[in-house]
Design brief:
Length: 236
């Protein structure tokens, strides 16, 4: 194995695309003629809660019918073998699906939350949720009908930013997989990683908006280029 000891991986919707989960921009970023940026906001939820709850109910149900793909499985293999060798890996995902976990990855940080959690705005408790929220079910903890999707909307602070920045500060390598580099602060991590001295690699179907910031960029479907890279890094 190489002298690389600490890796931070950022994934986006492109890593789940070949599992049949739509990305944000491939479908033109529209859902029922709404721009995602217009539905995934606290303002939209306040203005039209049924629209927003339907949007998330539909996606929560859809992800439960999908399976991890070769890219998720390769990252889970890296997670297991890298840790076994006493090295560090953090997978930070912008995705709200659970395919990294179902592929077997042990440590996944969902900076934008998770479809399979519901967050009670009355008692602040998060509960695992696989059903729908449109019918305003009671919070399992406090009984209030105050559940919302546990997803970070535009204008809301992503989760665990301190943990992410600590890992970026220590990283020898930062790898961005399947993301357009359109949404901050995630899109800025490559610049932070460079400033902290990490090498940077982009694995994406096509050049992302931040591709110029990467030392190296490989383009192709994640199910091909991610397993190839994992074999390389494990074989070094
Ligand atoms: C924050 C959860 C601050 C929800 C998501 C101007 C006005 C208003 C706001 C802003 C502004 N400028 C900047 C902002 C901030 C804003 C932002 O960046 N807006 C953008 C639109 C400009 N960011 C925020 O609001 C963030 N919060 O800044 O808070 C703050 C400070 C103090 C106090 C309070 C707050 C929060 C952003 C989080 C929003 N939530 N997701 C949900 O899922 O419904 S964002 C969502 O889109 C994803 O999580 C992801 O992060 C993001 C981008 O999506 P990608 O994953 O990259 O997917 P995309 O479709 O774009 O790209 C897919 C890529 O995969 C493509 O490149 C494609 O080529 C590739 N691909 C496709 N197929 C394959 C493939 N690659 C490989 N193989 C394949 N087969």
């Amino acid at each position: 194995m190489s002298d690389i000891r600490k890796i931070v991986i950022l994934t986006g919707a492109g890593v789940s695309a070949e599992s049949g989960i739509d990305t944000f921009r491939d479908g033109g970023g529209l859902w029922e003629q709404h721009r995602v940026e217009d539905v995934a906001t606290p303002e939209a939820f306040a203005r039209d809660p049924d629209l927003v709850l339907r949007f998330y109910d539909m996606r929560r149900e859809a992800i439960q019918t999908k399976l991890p793909n070769a890219a998720h499985l390769a990252l889970a293999k890296l997670d297991a073998q890298w840790r076994q060798a006493g090295r560090e890996l953090l997978i930070v995902t912008q995705n709200v699906d659970d395919l990294h976990e179902r592929a077997g990855a042990a440590r996944v940080l969902h900076m934008h939350g998770e479809h399979l959690n519901a967050w009670c705005t009355a008692c602040d408790v998060r509960s695992r949720w696989t059903g729908t929220l449109i019918e305003r079910p009671p919070c399992p903890e406090c009984g209030e009908t105050a559940l919302r999707p546990d997803v970070v909307w535009f204008g809301e602070m992503p989760y665990e930013m301190d943990t992410i920045f600590s890992a970026l500060r220590e990283a020898d390598l930062f790898v961005s997989i399947g993301t357009s580099g359109a949404v901050y602060p995630a899109a800025g991590f490559v610049r932070n990683a460079r400033e902290f001295g990490a090498a940077t690699l982009e694995l994406n179907l096509e050049p992302s908006q931040g591709t110029a910031w990467f030392d190296e960029a490989r383009h192709g479907p994640a199910t091909q280029i991610v397993p190839q890279w994992v074999e390389e890094i494990l074989g070094k």
